[in-house]
Design a protein that fits this description.
EC number: 4.2.1.11
Enzyme class: lyase
Number of strands: 15
Subcellular location: Cytoplasm; Secreted; Cell surface
Distance between the termini: 42 Å
Strand content: 15-25%
Largest sheet: 8 strands, mixed, barrel
Protein name: Enolase
Bound molecules: 2-phosphoglycolic acid, zinc ion
Family: Belongs to the enolase family.
Helix content: 25-40%
Length: about 425
Amino acid sequence: NVKQVIGREILDSRGNPTVEAEVLLENGVTGRGMAPSGASTGIFEAVELRDKEAKRYGGKGVKKAVNSVNTKIRETIVGMNVNDIYKIDEAMKKEDGTDDKSKLGANAILAVSIACAKAAAKSYHMPFYQFLGGISANILPIPMMNILNGGAHASNTVDVQEFMIMPVGASDFKEALRASSEVFHSLQLLLKEKGLATSVGDEGGFAPNLTSDEEAIQFILAAVEKAGYEPKKDFLLALDAASSEWKGKEKGQYHLPKSGKDVTSYQLIEHWEMLCDKYPICSIEDPLDEEDWEGWIAITEKLGKKIQLVGDDLFVTNTKRLEKGIREKCGNAILIKPNQIGTVSETIEAVKMAQRAGFRTIISHRSGETEDTTIADLAVAFGTGQIKTGAPSRGERVAKYNRLLRIEEQLKENAVYGVKEI
Ligand code: PGA
Ligand code: ZN
């Protein structure tokens, strides 16, 4: 049972404050959880509580959320059994009382939810992925590595937020990581040769000034070849447009903030179709806005058989929104971010609903991360087969990849790499 819960304010990878929670059980076992934080957050996400005290951390302090942990949440869960993570999460949700967790803060609730689940796993002397996924959990995810950053994650001229490589031809996770790292370094050399910037964005990918998304794709394909790999066979490409950041004047209208272009839903769909015909792209995330359900229906009809269409801001790991998406045939995959919904158990429910409906699932980091590697374990536990956790650069991204290396080693010959088909 829970003996004590402690919250504290720590820093995330952008140097902004975030919440860490530690639980101590009566048996002496401890568990720790940290909340990540997004930059291109969806409007339907659970709310991270920030102090808005302009003089402290530019208003981004999380003293209030930490206080939630040290008062209300502590009072609620001390004495409870951590083995039933659903009960713990339910108790915190009830204490919060809002739909979006804005009272106690989703950042406070998630940190505690992770800390409790981790402590429960430790009490059973089980690795976290096995505690959640059972002893048969053995699928290592294909990384979707964001090696070129744009949008809200970089101060360059590129509107599409993420250009990712997926090492689909690798035999195991370790080889996938090696090949991806080689491509990352080839890209660095190519950019250098052209006199372009090789400093990195929030998710560890390069953030050069380029004139179009096609130019970014061409650079990446050249980097794949330069590293000795074959596009399509060894590597597929994935994009995250994060187009909810491109809100235009009206619904169905888009304004690309960096290039200054104005386009309609229909034109965007045509553009994505053109890119998919021309390049080995197997997945596009948030190709359309979080409220453009009609556009989503149209693009799913057009491209849903050919590629993976991933709802991130559209679904926000929320079963209510996902249910609507499944019903109306919007997209065919969901990005799973625990802090969009705020508890481990609701994250599990979103994954289950998606998997039942034949939607693919991708576990994901946030652009503001910590050294917490929980998502690596979640990917293996749920057998998602795909994970999005940035470039093979920046400690907070690499920490997740290194955790996956250790899991693969632990699973020995039982480890299976990736999903059969993207
Ligand atoms: P965010 O971006 O963490 O800044 O929201 C990640 C994503 O859009 O997938
Ligand atoms: Zn996204």
